[in-house]
């Protein structure tokens, strides 16, 4: 009893604060204090809040919100609220016109001495030609089962607020009906009423209502934004297996919104949601799996590349590449490689539009381009030059035929693309072997036949200087 007395005292104080702010013409503060008391069941505050919604005082006018709060206070026996609710049923303000309901509430208020209600009772009774209107059935009265069942069926099928309001009165402890009423209010943009009903259903353990209430707190719709409350309700819903709440928690842990960033927690919630068929969670897990697979592939490529670079089969030096303008200057790498017969390849790696290209000039030991590359003839009879290229540990492969007259002793050997190249990009590169990804390449071999024997050019992608050049391209 002492706890209840303290609680009522606190609610009465909030109500009185609301009255004081209203008298001081500070309606926004007044509504805030009224709401705090009304949402905890204090009837005078519920009636006052209903009046402010009806009159549009300090808030956009909303007859539906007004009827909702009048109904709350009327159910607790407040004569003024009962009278006002009767008027709203009589005039169809925020509710469907219903003379039976109107007369019921006018009688309730008249029994408590409300003069205006007594006048309406006399008038409506006279208009009914002496036939006293039958009182509508109230919650938990089994004598009008057909009406209650009809309201419940209509609420379940159509989800209209007027049907769900009546259904919820017949079954005030039915969390599913309360949830449907909340959805109806939200659909009608009656957000404060929606929040109140979502909270009632959520507190009864309804997982979907918990999710909806969390979403309202997260977005600040109908209530001030409160991430702590949003996360709390999402978690309660998710723990019951609600896939949408599990997805929402996954996003929050991934982004660090309202919680510390935690990739493992994000993945765990997304997995739970995806297993239940949530499309967004399924797409997320597939995307993450692809990223992880790609990262593992890149890590494996780098490991092999560094191991090969450490063999130091070739040496590479950094050089400055002069562009047409100073802002086009860049870094290149150069390696001089020679075969036993004295053919020399001056290999250069440089940036080309964000991608990496390696080219070579075949010369003799004096540095003169005196070597005439032998031409081959393909099956179609075309004359040109073939090179054998080997990427990583793949089998050696012939590159395309470079027709006679399209090259001299300077050749583009390979282009490493940062993303999958189009056919046009491959052709424009002009390389003997072009279609390979930089992220998947750790070694390139190119073999050419020259007039001074076979020349094998080796390109270690993870050589320290080669990597410096590559990073300068990004």
Description:
The protein has helices spanning 2-23, 27-38, 43-55, 63-75, 79-91, 99-111, 115-127, 145-158, 161-170, 175-187, 191-203, 207-219, 227-239, 243-255, 263-275, 279-309, 423-429, 464-473; strands at residues 317-321, 330-338, 344-352, 355-363, 376-377, 383-385, 388-391, 397-398, 402-403, 410-417, 433-437, 443-450, 453-460. It is an alpha+beta fold and 474 residues long. The protein folds into 3 domains: 2-232, Tetratricopeptide repeat domain (Serine Threonine Protein Phosphatase 5, Tetratricopeptide repeat); 241-311, no CATH class; 317-473. Strands 1-2-3-4-10-11 form a 6-stranded mixed β-sheet, with helices on both faces. A 4-stranded antiparallel β-sheet has the order 8-7-12-13. A 3-stranded antiparallel β-sheet has the order 5-6-9, with no helix packed on it. Helix 12 (207-219) packs antiparallel against helix 13. The radius of gyration is 40 Å and the shape is rod-shaped. The two termini are 73 Å apart.
Give keywords:
single chain; 474 residues; alpha+beta; Serine Threonine Protein Phosphatase 5, Tetratricopeptide repeat; 3 domains; 6-stranded mixed sheet; 4-stranded antiparallel sheet; 18 helices; 16% strand; disordered N terminus
Average pLDDT works out at 81
**DSSP strand count:** 13
CATH fold call of the largest domain: Serine Threonine Protein Phosphatase 5, Tetratricopeptide repeat
Strand content bin: 15-25%
Helix content: 40-55%
Q: What can be said about the biggest beta sheet?
A: 6 strands, mixed
The radius of gyration computed from the alpha-carbon positions, rounded to a whole number of angstroms, is 40 Å
- CATH class category of the largest domain: Mainly Alpha
User: What structural category arises from helix and sheet content?
Assistant: alpha+beta
Strand order of the largest sheet: 1-2-3-4-10-11
Task: Write down the domain tally.
Answer: 3
Rough outline? rod-shaped
Distance between the termini: 73 Å
CATH level-four homologous superfamily name of the largest domain: Tetratricopeptide repeat domain
Low-confidence blocks of residues = 1-8, 131-144, 426-430
Quickly count the helices: 18
CATH architecture of the largest domain: Alpha Horseshoe
